[in-house]
Amino acid sequence: MMHVYLDNSATTRQHDSVTEAMVLAMKEDYGNPSSLHRMGLVAEKILKEARARVAGSLQVQPEQIIFTSGGTEADNMAILGTVGHNLKKGNRIITTAVEHPAVLEPCRILEGRGYEVVRLPVDNRGIISLKDLEEALTPETLLVTVMHVNNEVGSIQPVREIYQRIQAYNQNHGSRILFHTDGVQSYGKLPLTGADADMISLSAHKIHGPKGIGALYVKKGITLQPLVVGGGQELGRRSGTENMPAIAGFGVAAEHIRINRESILKHLESCRLFFREQLLKKAADAVVNSPDGEFCQPGILSVSFPGLRGEVLLHFLEQDGIYVSTGSACSSGKKGHSHVLSAMGLPEARLEGTLRFSFSEYTTMEELAFTADRCREITARMTQLKQSRRR
Amino acid sequence: MKDQFTLIVRCGEVALKGLNKPYFERMLADRIRKVTKAYEGISVVRSEGLIFVRGGAHHDVEKVMADISKVFGVASISPAMEVESDMEKIGEAAVEFMLDLIERKGVKTFKVEAKRADKSFPVKSPDIGRQIGAKVLIGCKVLKVDVHKPEAMLFIDVRKDRTYIFEQKLSGFGGLPLGTNGKGLVLLSGGIDSPVAAWMMAKRGMLIEALHFHSYPYTSERAQEKVEDLARIVAGYTGNFNLHVINLLPIQEAIVANCPEEETTLLVRRFMMKIAERVAKDRSCMMLITGENLGQVASQTAEALVVTDQAVTMPVMRPLIAMDKVEIMDRARDIGTYETSILPYEDCCTVFLPKHPKTKPKLEAILASESLLDGETLIEKALESREVVRIQPTL
């Protein structure tokens, strides 16, 4: 049976080179970087190298990288850490209606503590307007957090422009508003560097690295209140013995995208182009939710099959060895419609039957053609069954 | 009591069964042996209508008691102290027993309840109570007698060779030992009701096997995983059993394509019953068990139940038929299945749910619709797709 993994926005298959580095860190170089003996030193070197590699992939300095348990912790740290360190300096946080729960939830908690949270609306492409953002900025604003790429549809937010507007506002008003972006779905695909934000969240397992490891880039001069305190690791910013095998694996994955990002992007673009065309030709009812061309990270294609149920489609595809997602993996299993698609103003019929196809450098055109074929047959079968109902 | 423990296990109704009494007691002792097999060095002995479970200091008494309390047929359990049936010795032991209670629970008041099962014992029950009570008062200065609301009841059970001293009673579920009432096949859906139905029949001594229908890919593999989780919880009471799993989708599709929409659910239910009857016969089950509950949903109205029941000749047990939903939910919480039952996965009954299901179906109409289908072939195909999962209790 074919094995077609098209759920790369949920997680990716680990590179073999990543696994090898992790095995080495588990079996041979298993020291604690804080230990004084030689084994500690070896571990410290591995940690240093991995940090340098992650930093290099963002074109920033190694000491600006804090390793975390993943994208969620990085998002939490950026938001709660900023607020925790600047308690008396302001009370407004600006975000968007389409963020990942890792951003929405800390914002909701802060709202409960009396902070004012502004959630910027998006247009039908899932993108905020810079004018809305500028109007929302006040001298009491502590933080703006806007994701780079949306995890459900792939929309790209204009982070560099957002950052520039915030910096200009800060200059004109003598304010110190910080800008954070969740870079989990853009990292390794789109250009993303320290010039795009004050803080950037990263996750290793979306770039063929291990799960359970991520990082927060924090620009020099910014202090955050730590979420995890203890032995003072990560320069006191995130305590706890370093997750060395995962960090070593993250380093390898980061190095891979630093070198290959542009060719990966090209490959994803051809995947999207090919699959989109195949699918629209074969499954006549399909409607693409993701925005076009430059407004979308090409590794993600959200498609609605109006009138059908996404979960059922997913299980039919699974029978053929094709693995996809409805909306995002984080919200599947929960009841209710996608907050992202709703914010984009999609009609009811398109909210229900949504699938997210997400590609990787391992995706082949053969797999995509096969998937489009199966979509045609499955949607035809389901539609026929529905119609026999209406007699 | 410190280095060795004794549990007195009382049989519930088992004691009422006249000439069958020894048989039921033997079955119950066997069941208790089964659940205590995992602990090494525990003995289970029947004597004078009671079952005595003895173990050593290395056993976790609380855990052993909890395990035994789940055995059907057990009315109650008490951790007891054993001494020779001699007033002097009983008195000393009672003082020791109460000192321990004072230390562990801070007991301040007590009452003695003595019973003389051995009528040849020289002291009569009320006198045993008075004399031992006096010794305890002398031996434990902080204690007072309170005959109305004592914090601790001190039970003295005098038997021929030995006397048992105990305080608390942990209630069991009662019922009858498993295996004393044949075997039934339960239709397990994944909802709140059917695990409770299975449990209730098992409580009356019936061995069970289970049958689950799914509609993959309209239902997910997680939904089946949930049913297996529920079955494992039930197996905590019944021991290992087989879960048969059958895909109903081809039958549902045939019904949707050929029969009136409002009859869908009932037609599907009838197919389920027919398939269940075949599986039951194949597995030597003599009855079917369902979680049906009068009036709960459209397919469980009196009229609908008549139509469903007519599909099979095998008796169908519906232990929840007259319970209220809240009662069923409470029972599910007691058993421990509730939290798993309410996990939100689609089950096969909600797939292709008609907008306006028939609540007062006519048997003739349903039979006419059924005749539009090649029922026998559909049933045989469904039976061929049967998979069997061996269910073992979660540790």
Describe this structure in words.
The complex is a heterodimer of chains A (391) and B (395). By secondary structure, chain A is of the alpha/beta class. Helices cover 42% and strands 13% of the residues of chain A. Chain A has eleven helices and twelve strands. In chain A, the strands form three sheets. In chain A, strands 2-8-7-6-5-3-4 form a seven-stranded mixed sheet, sandwiched between helices. In chain A, helix 4 links the parallel strand 3 (92-96) and strand 4. Chain A is globular, with a radius of gyration of 22 Å. The two termini of chain A are 37 Å apart. Chain B is an alpha/beta fold. Chain B has helices at 21-36, 61-69, 87-105, 125-139, 193-203, 221-238, 249-258, 264-282, 302-309, 325-335, 338-341, 363-370, 375-384; strands at residues 4-11, 43-47, 50-56, 74-84, 109-116, 144-145, 152-158, 162-166, 170-171, 183-187, 207-214, 241-247, 287-289, 316-317, 387-391. In chain B, strand 11, helix 6 (221-238) and strand 12 (241-247) form a beta-alpha-beta unit. In chain B, helix 3 crosses helix 4 (125-139). The radius of gyration of chain B is 27 Å and the shape is elongated. The interface between A and B is medium-sized, with 12 and 13 residues.
